[in-house]
Design the sequence.
């Protein structure tokens, strides 16, 4: 146990790293926290669906949870069920084999709901495009609120996209906590 | 840089006998794919560290079933039927093109047996696939996988592309292995064009490939700790991985090094400052990884979860044709960097990292050892990086020229089989992921374990969906 504690102390808190902090990211983080609290009165619940991605975008979404970006510290959490989700994060071109599962996930989310399409594939179909096996961009299948390009988009850009979706959210009254 | 492939066109009558002799010679099936016009099935095998490609022209659109010799062929044959209509084997269910018909899972019957369907959308941030568990109480009697959900038509896509564009697409077959795929594609194209890359380019490719291996192993070790109940491990390893990705971005302009390995060499080079940054990182990383390893190896909770969990014995692993990290953790000496040792690994002399027990713990041990070995390789590359340009302009291969790439990615061996079309286009390209071989092994490794151990066992293999769904 003492070794674990020593490691933790030694690693310190990298979320606000003394070396090379990313000011842009911090601006996003603080605004996001304030916005979600103001609009939802609680953490923003996010559900992710890989609708045909190469797994590159997933790596960056995972990175959002590392101590540098510390997603949960910013008032966001990934949830296991779409029924708990405010926002759906969709990666990949939508494969025909995933179309039904994606639509069902979306249908299972309570209103009001937001959709963020992640990555070049989510935005345009990307390099995979549209074909017998791919429906292409996410908006061909679902109403998309915000699309963030990149191959893959960096974690800060994904955060920015979520912020943008929450900012543009036209829900009339904040949900009760 | 090219790979020599012994290639024969054979008759249907020889298909089984020749593959039987491959098997009896200790060979394994590397990849199985087909092409249209003229209808042909291709089987790539590894025999005594050499590649053998057997081409079987089809007359009646069917061919003999290889899955009795190489079990991993079963799903590849189902994929071929979906994509080309060529028939083989008894399993008529679709694999890559699902359609609307309900899928008939194998039913397990008996007192107290029930099914747990999971997926395609999972609870976490992972790729989609369906797992059908048949269990009694908590114990798994049978697992059947249904994959293909992220099939997005990659192989057809190649056929509308130029050889240059194909490099970019290959780097996105499985995003976590982008360097390995891009290198395998480059190797295939360089073989087809009978060109060799400059030594500096080859060494830089190895540097990038080892960085990809380290990054993925760091991520996996974090999640394995987390799934075993040690969240501390995830926080630490994901921090180390992020540090490495940031240095990638700073030195090479992309966190995951996409499109940095291209036909002809690499698009990136390294100056003295970059070299020093990597050396400094290697020193820091080694100290941290060794300290974390001591904690993992000493942790009673992790030991309880990981030792003897999800065991895949050496005999079964060999029978199933398992490759890569999972094979090495089951005591099988497979690593294309060593056997046969493609350039520049013939000069770098990587050590084989293996274990015998074939359980989750062994797959953790192999990852730790491979990180340490990759750090050593990084230092060795940087100490003797050849001078010169990292890239040449590649001559265009002749129409119909063929080549194969064979690269040991962090997950296992990746093949790319390429045939050039007219005027710098692609006639046919087949990328092969090691997950084709290893997914069926997971169905066996989980038997007799309890359902809550499945996420841990699954993570210890960490197989690709996209890579095998194509």
Sequence:
């Amino acid at each position: 146990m003492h070794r674990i504690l020593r490691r933790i102390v030694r690693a310190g808190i990298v979320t606000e790293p003394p070396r090379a902090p990313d000011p842009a990211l911090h601006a996003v983080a603080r605004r996001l926290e304030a916005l979600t609290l103001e609009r939802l009165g609680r953490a923003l619940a996010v559900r992710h669906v890989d609708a045909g991605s190469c797994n590159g975008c997933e790596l960056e979404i995972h990175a959002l949870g590392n101590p540098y970006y510390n997603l949960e510290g910013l008032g966001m959490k990934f949830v296991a069920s779409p029924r708990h989700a405010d926002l759906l994060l969709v990666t990949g071109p939508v494969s025909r084999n995933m179309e039904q599962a994606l639509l069902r996930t979306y249908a299972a989310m309570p209103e009001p709901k937001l959709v963020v399409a992640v990555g070049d594939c989510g935005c345009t179909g990307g390099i995979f495009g549209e074909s017998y096996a791919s429906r292409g961009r996410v908006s061909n299948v679902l109403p998309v609120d915000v699309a963030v390009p990149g191959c893959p988009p960096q974690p800060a850009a994904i955060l920015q996209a979520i912020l943008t979706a929450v900012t543009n959210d036209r829900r009339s009254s904040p949900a009760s906590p | 840089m090219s790979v020599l492939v012994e290639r024969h066109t054979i008759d249907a009558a020889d298909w089984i006998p020749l593959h039987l002799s491959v098997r009896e010679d200790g060979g394994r099936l590397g990849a199985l794919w087909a092409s249209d016009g003229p209808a042909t099935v291709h089987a790539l095998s590894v025999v005594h560290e050499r590649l053998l490609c057997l081409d079987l022209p089809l007359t009646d659109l069917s061919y003999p079933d290889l899955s009795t010799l190489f079990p991993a062929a079963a799903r590849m044959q189902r994929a071929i039927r979906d994509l080309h209509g060529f028939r083989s084997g008894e399993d008529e269910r679709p694999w890559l093109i699902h359609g609307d018909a309900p899928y008939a899972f194998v039913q397990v019957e008996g007192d107290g047996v029930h099914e747990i369907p999971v997926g395609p959308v999972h609870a976490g941030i992972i790729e989609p696939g369906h797992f059908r568990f048949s269990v009694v109480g908590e114990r798994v009697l049978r697992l059947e996988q249904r994959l293909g959900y992220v099939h997005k038509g990659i192989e057809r896509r190649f056929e509308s592309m130029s050889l240059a564009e194909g490099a970019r697409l290959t780097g996105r077959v499985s995003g976590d292995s982008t360097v390995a795929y891009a290198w395998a594609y480059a190797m295939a194209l360089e073989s087809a064009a009978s060109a060799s890359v400059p030594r500096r380019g080859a060494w830089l490719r190895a540097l990038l490939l080892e960085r990809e291996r380290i990054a993925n192993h760091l991520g996996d070790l974090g999640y394995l700790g987390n799934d075993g109940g040690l969240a501390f491990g995830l926080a630490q390893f994901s921090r180390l991985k992020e540090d490495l990705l940031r240095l990638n971005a700073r030195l090479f302009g992309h966190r995951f090094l996409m499109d940095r390995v291209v036909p002809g060499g690499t698009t990136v080079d390294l100056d003295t400052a970059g070299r020093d940054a990597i050396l400094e990182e290697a020193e820091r990383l080694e100290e941290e990884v060794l300290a974390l390893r001591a904690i993992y190896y000493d942790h009673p909770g992790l030991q309880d979860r990981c030792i003897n969990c999800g065991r895949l014995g050496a005999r079964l692993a060999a029978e199933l044709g398992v490759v890569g990290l999972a094979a090495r953790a089951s005591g099988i000496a497979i690593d294309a960097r060593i056997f046969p040792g493609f350039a520049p690994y013939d000069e770098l002399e990587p050590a084989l990292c293996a274990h015998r027990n074939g359980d989750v713990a062994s797959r953790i041990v192999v990852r730790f050892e491979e990180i340490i070995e990759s750090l050593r390789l990084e230092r060795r590359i940087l100490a003797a990086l050849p001078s010169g340009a990292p890239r040449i302009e590649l001559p265009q291969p002749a129409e119909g020229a063929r080549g194969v790439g064979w690269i040991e990615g962090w997950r296992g061996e990746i093949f790319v089989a390429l045939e050039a079309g007219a005027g710098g286009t692609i006639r046919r390209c087949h990328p092969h992921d090691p997950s084709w071989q290893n997914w069926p092994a997971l169905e066996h490794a989980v038997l007799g374990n309890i359902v809550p151990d499945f996420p841990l066992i699954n993570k210890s293999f960490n197989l690709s969906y996209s890579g095998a769904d194509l």
Notes: Residues 16-23, 170-177 of chain A have pLDDT under 50 and may be disordered. The domain at 42-160 of chain A is CATH 3.40.50.12280 (Rossmann fold).
